[in-house]
Amino acid sequence: CYAVLSLLLQKAVRHTSFTGELKAVRLELEDRTVELTALTDTGNTLTDPVTGQGVMVAEGERLLPLFAVSQRPSVQELRDPAGALERLTGAGGHFRLLPYRAVGVKGVLLAFQAKQVTLAGRVIPRMTVALSPTPVSDGGGYSGLLGGVV
User: Fold this and answer.
1) What is the DSSP string of the chain?
2) 148 pLDDT higher than 60
3) pTM of the full predicted structure?
């Protein structure tokens, strides 16, 4: 019984704010803000090739309120970042493409530079954030991934 209970409890508290893995994040762009929870992901080594800094990956749909309606990518455009960039560049958007590589997969993500990010009370100016077209969590407990950012 002890072994089974230990296993179940370990799974239940695997990703919690108590262990420091989950952090409250507030992103700002112009006069708009979005708040979300992000997981500290030590396996996320995505860096911005321009700045050399770590990149936060967040669920694109969750970040859409940061952008003016005319500069907001649609859910479909998140799946086609190159096509989205073409339209959004003409609309005066903040976007660029960010190459990434995962196990067996290469591609690009739509990314932007947040004006300011508050990460668990710590203010970070000018952070690159990539918009994931799919959920980043398996159970919905978080909507962003922090790697080399923290």
Assistant:
1) -HHHHHHHHHHHTSS-TTTT-EEEEEEEETTEEEEEEEEE-TT---B-TTT--B-EEEEHHHHGGGS-GGGPPPHHHHH-HHHHHHHHHHTT--EEEEEEEETTEEEEEEEEEEEEEEETTEEEEEEEEEEESS-SSSSSS-SEEESTT-
2) yes
3) 0.82
